[in-house]
Design brief:
alpha/beta, 5 helices, globular
Length: 138
């Protein structure tokens, strides 16, 4: 799997760890990491993420992460991460921006792999896997 990271200039230098971003994505891909295809991680500002969220999900607000799977083969997808939302969430939770970005990348990739968080039991399962992967992430 080819993993590409775009618009990293939006990420503050202290958290701009592109190798770690790729490793977290690869870890979250699991066995799919060995398949053909491409995964793109794209950083967005608040305005861009709000527009994306409004256009595709019909929610008129900034959100932390949105994933879109590819339909054609070889597949994978795009993971869009809002840097502004990641900053807010990192401050609220009390951990580093880097940790929050890694969490969001993992979360987005898990969605591409079919994990869901729209029901309590599914969310619990997804967050358990997310936390397990984050603990293994460099």
């Amino acid at each position: 799997m080819k993993i590409s990271v775009f618009k990293t200039s939006l990420v503050p230098v202290s958290a701009r760890k592109i190798t770690k971003f790729r490793r977290a994505a690869k870890l979250a891909l699991g066995r799919d990491a060995k398949k053909d295809g491409s995964l793109n991680v794209i950083f967005m500002n608040s305005k861009e993420m709000r527009a994306l969220n409004k256009k595709f999900i019909n929610h008129d607000y900034d959100t932390d992460v949105i994933s879109f799977p590819y339909d054609e083969k070889p597949a994978f997808g795009d993971v869009f991460v809002s840097v502004s939302q990641a900053k807010r969430q990192a401050a609220e939770i009390g951990h580093s921006l880097l940790k929050e970005i890694l969490t969001l990348i993992i979360h987005g990739v898990l969605h591409l792999r079919g994990y869901r968080d729209d029901k309590p039991a599914l969310k619990k399962k997804m967050f358990k896997e997310q936390d397990r992967l984050l603990a293994r992430s460099p």
